[in-house]
Protein 1
Amino acid sequence: MGTKVREIMNTKIETIKMDATVYDAIERLVDKRLRSLVVLPRDENDVYGIVTVRDIVFKVIKNNLDIHKIKIEEIASKPVITVDKDTEVGHLISMMEKFNIARVFVLEGKDVIGVVSLLDIMAGALIERARRT
Amino acid sequence: MFDKILSFGKSENIVIKNIKSHINLLCSASNCFKDALNKLEPEKASCVIELERDADTIRRDIISTIHEGAFLPYVRPNLCRFVEMVDETFDTLEDAALLFRQIDKSIFKTIEHECLKIASINAEMCELLQIAFETLHGKGNIKEKNLAIRLCEKQVDDIKFELIDKLIRIDVKNFWEGKIVSDFVESITRISDLIEDASDYLYIIEISLK
């Protein structure tokens, strides 16, 4: 049996609303020492999105846009790529390679309950290896 | 590594056997503490106190056997420091268990998720320390076990920041309520630091034996 995503995921996730400003996002990212925020769905028919430090730097700061005026919905990526908490890590790695992404959010039902980054996978693999060898 | 360098005498074998038992007891105590937290049953954490008493006896045996002449003199100080470090981990775990019995249940509920995660990582780190010691005694790469322990310690450090964030928002009724929760968090987050230090001593022992 391979390692499951839920065993290595990080449950430290922060959310932000679609209509929040980029400034709000920066404040939260700096305060919580994070690299991405989950963008909450607008309503039941909407889906989760993601806004990362990359989005802020390349889409806002690079173009000298006002961080107090630009809304999260203008720069967020949607839909966010997610996996079920019981997905095997091997499958997750293939998925991250295929889509060239550094982090994937973890779902339990319809709720985002965690995030797995490449660093989490590397740490998980090293700990597992130390236990086995 | 010990096998490669030293021809074992009776006293060396006794020390190795006792150190293994000492770490084994630490693993049992960590798992027992984790279960008590999981089930939210403070009285179950008393197993840590009982195991700590057994561990104290083993530690005294180890230290006295080493001072009676087990191992080459240059190995003894780091081996003793390693044992003392495991003992300090035990003492800190005992403090956490005692404080868990005193902590206000509603306050604990607000930090339960983070505490459970830390207790679980601590138990995993004890297991890794056990494997690292076996590696020193037998074959394998201790550097990798040391890295795995450091990775776990970093995970605890990250959670500690989240916990502090939550703690400063908690309203406490009086000085003692605040002190108990603060000391409890301090204890459970310190365990990983101590295991990391113990693992570093193992690495130093390995280098000194090369």
Note: The radius of gyration of chain B is 18 Å.
Protein 2
Amino acid sequence: MRRRLKSMTLGLLAGTLALSLAACGTAKNTDNEGGQTSGGSSKVTLELAISKSSQDSPFIADWLIEEFEQETGIKINLQLIPAEQSTTVLQTKLAVDEVPDLIQYNLASAVTDLNLERNFEILDNEPWVSRIQNPDVLSAFGHIYGFHVSQDTGMQGVVYNKDIFEELGLSIPKNYEEFLAVCEAIKAAGYTPVFMPYKDAWAANIWPAAAFADWAAKNDPTLFDDLNSNKKQWTDIPAFEEILEQQYQIYKLGYTNADVLADSYDMAVGKFLSKEVAMMFMGDWLIQNITSQDPSMNIGLFAIPYAEDPSIGASPLGGQLFIPKKSKHIEEAKKYLEFIASPEIAQRIVDAESYVSNLSDVTTPEQPEYKQEIIDNYITPKKVTLTMDAHMIVDQNEWYRNLQDQFTGMITPKEALANWNEKFQELMKDKGAEGF
Amino acid sequence: MHKSKSMYPYYLVLPALLVYFIFFAFPALIGFYYSFTDWRLDRTTIQFIGWANFERIFSDKILLLAIKNTLIFAVVTVIGKNVLGLLLALGLNMKLKTRNLLRAIYFTPSILSILVISIVFTPILRTEGMLNGLFEWLGFESLAQAWLTNPSIVIWTISAVAIWQGAGFQMTIYLAGLQGISKEYYEAAKIDGASGWRSFWNITLPLLLPALNINLMLTLIGGLKVFSEVYVLTGGGPGNASQVVGTIILRAFGEGNWGLGTAVNTLLFVCVAIIAVPLIIFMRRKEVAE
Amino acid sequence: MSIRARSFLYHLVVEILLILLALVIVVPLLLMFLGSFMNSVEVMQFRIQLPEKWQFSNYLTVFEKGGLGRAFLNGIVITVISCLVNIVTSSAAAFILARRESKLSNFLYLFFFMGLIAPMSTITTIRVVQWFGFYGSITSVVFVYAALNTAFSIFLYTGFVKSLPKALDEAAFIEGANIFQVYLKIVTPLLLPVNATVAIMVFMGVWNDISIPLYFLPDSSKWTMPLSVYNFYGMYSREWNLIFADLVLTSLPVIILYVFAQRFIVSGMTAGAMKG
């Protein structure tokens, strides 16, 4: 009956189509051709979905995909998904079981957004697992779900132009007052001290995310657990207000670009290259982006100077590859991971990206100067804290929007925290978190 | 009478009805069901929760702001697009040398991708952007504004950009209507000694009624359902200052709350239908009466 | 002053006003057009000025690196067929709905009209397509686009069919024509201006859409041009000259279509004359 209905409707539809298609044979052709490749009778094509914003990922480099095809005969087709839509598109595809064979995503967000446990293959028994040195950066719920050749977490702080600092005889500020003094000196020399691209609301979170976490680590180590279990409220902590006020002061004192809410993150590299700006609150990936455009640029990173002697913020490793359980080509997808993990290929990637290798038989290349400095100044003396983002299990966009709102001058830090507190309660309740 | 009815058989409606029903109406109807569930993609089960989503919507103060913004946008764009569109159509229906070129120019924005709009207007509307530069050059410094970042004017800016983009489309519909009006009416009016204004009120406007109806309807619905103009220009920001109902839906989806997002969608549908359906029934009657 | 001179002056004033107003449209578009020929430093000034050196190579870069050839063909195939399906089915339906004045036709009209208001439900639509077994095919996307635009097209067509005098088809019926002949030979030619308008709007909507292929076409080699442009936009996010070149290329087909269709829109004159 169901079948019959289906074929009848199909027949009617076909009639409709034929009515207008009499002249147009091309459509059918394209269609059949497509059907064959995805049907995969002779050759398998893997679909790899990745957000547009991660398109510099080494896992989708042309040479890698080509060599993989030469060796195995398996083709890889990239789906570059527009960044703002990537979560929704992937969620939808997972919900209707029409999944890509490989997905590049951030492990932490995969847990909050994509229901990692239900939707993705456990990779514990893959041949490369035994060579992994730091399985934590690939694991959740006690299993390995993701794949990466690096174990390097991103560091967040103040990205600064060392040449400008040297030219003006400035040293790294150790607290907020010193930071303001540095800004004043830079401004006097005709540079923009700090670039704030807060049209992208998330960019306004770098300062508080690192500062909140460092403050908590030093003054209230269980703070984030307490927030996450509703034992404490966001409005309970006066230090948070102060930290937000500090960032706003930097803007109010005229140490930033004029139009902070109109400038967007994609302008940052250009601003550094043209030596217009001296500093920006961002992760060290920005340094990588700047120096890859112009290797002569001298860029470094120091910790967010919200208080005396702060530690640097570390964000969890991102950009892992995942294999959805519903993939039609799980074996072939696993082969791709194996291929990337093979010592020779992995070494090439690790060298090219200056990664800290996560594979025992792949050596970590000499780190660029700025990374070495981070290691010497922060990692070795153990002055590293995971940023607030690492502790959050709900979507933070409303928080970012409140930070942005603060810069319109419409709300105070207190109100921003109160608004977020309310939203946070709601989101945690939806999530089914205990205590809400 | 009986004969004329059978002359127009319903089976010609069938192909359109089938395509429309199967690939749009049916899935949309089923979709409404989700507004009564706690559907989330990070959970395995979907439960029926009655009106809970709707209760939540009305306790959200951002939504109230979004409704206000949506209404501002709808009213401003309906008036702006139609007044401008009609004026342009009247002008470009005259025998002008550059008529075809001008028509093409005015129509162009409405066929461009919304992406173009965002990419072209962002640099223009910046505080130190071209528009303020122009004001300065003309000596009207006081008119300079933070067009997209001042919370109290941002929605008006977006409305203006929408009018910039859309008026040309309304113009074409009015043009098509105008060209359906025979010259003889005007000649007769001239002989009777009617002024330009009188013939506009007595001939043009009544005969333009179908075009006017279409345009009012399309701009009204488009205005209430506004999404992409806001999305590409400000994303609802700064903060939540330019949120409209359409972007609130995305916000709910983004927070993983698909049931809630669908509920806002359903609510928007019901509200627009309440405004638009009586209007369309009224207009259809009127058209028949004409 | 003679009437002729006054009317000439009046026309001249209107023309000059319209030309001046057109600058409001042209200037932002010029920013994009001229920018597409500049180098990446020059374009960042966002000024209306001729490029120091016309870099036609921008277009070549965009075409090669963006892989636009394939996407262009996909876009043309999907868009043209969706348009055809939509125009044929909608105009036929609207013809009947406008001519009959029964409860059923009123109901159907309203039912179609609701499509202008109702939101699309992506997940359930995917489910329907899966049930038919052609998820991922271009055919499915064609149907989804045709369905999405049905409400709009029927709405436009019905309004205009109503303005055509019924006497025209009645005369043809008396001469022994059947419904198809009346529809094809009497109504369709008179609807030419509306056809042109609908064609452009549907074409534009489908051509510029960036979400349906994302959800309905898992094989990205079937994606359409704006999506490729979108990807490209990120890849060279700082090179505005290339982005502008890209936007010009994507906009071109729709503009060309308009220039062609405009002839038909003008030919609406004939429809009016016959009516009078």
Note: The domain at 154-315+372-431 of chain A is CATH 3.40.190.10 (D-Maltodextrin-Binding Protein; domain 2).
